[in-house]
Specification:
By secondary structure, this protein is α/β, with parallel strands linked by helices. It contains nine helices and seven strands, in the order H-H-H-E-H-E-H-E-E-H-E-H-H-H-E-E. It is an enzyme of class 2 (transferase). Keywords: Methyltransferase, S-adenosyl-L-methionine, Transferase. It holds the Pfam family Methyltransf_25.
Length: 213
Amino acid sequence: MGREFLDLFDNWATTYDDSVAGQDPQYQAVFANYEVILNKVTENSYGNILEFGVGTGNLTEKLINAGHQVFGIEPSQAMRKIAAEKLPNLHLMEGDFISFPKPTLPIDTIVSTYAFHHLTDEEKEVAIKQYADMLPQAGKIVFADTMFEDEDVKEKIIEEANKHQFYNLSEDLKREYYPTKEVLQNIFLDHNFGVSFKQMNDFVWLIIANKKE
């Protein structure tokens, strides 16, 4: 359920905002167009929102400023502390993509950025099935996450990371559960979603899934 990466989240908490701002050369390409990505997720969301992987609250702040009621889920205590300091009125709860407290209001849109790849493909399917059951007709899932067109593209990016001695990035790419486009598309289609993909940088895609009526 992604909790095997909790130490990584806790350790990254204090420097995460610096990384997304491009101050860590290893992850500059991963976070390229970061503000554009967050804005696109915000623009494509509606109604009451359930956000998984709140992190330090960067997307959350944009969603709240756009007038949405946001219920945040974050497994990392260190990340939750930072997000709560930024957004003291946020409904922020401990949990993960599969095991989480249910929001007190109906949810229209489920969002996440830079987090869904911490689930195995089997866990991704369990999660999407839950969301299909939770969302109303025409409900939405809007994710921005690392994924790859196919395994060959992934291997080439790992080779490129090693070439530049970006060994932390290389290890992340080998250790975490980055899906291919085909796998993720099939999961959404199997659970009655129409889905579109738009590549935002070399790593991250905007994924918009609409629950069919």
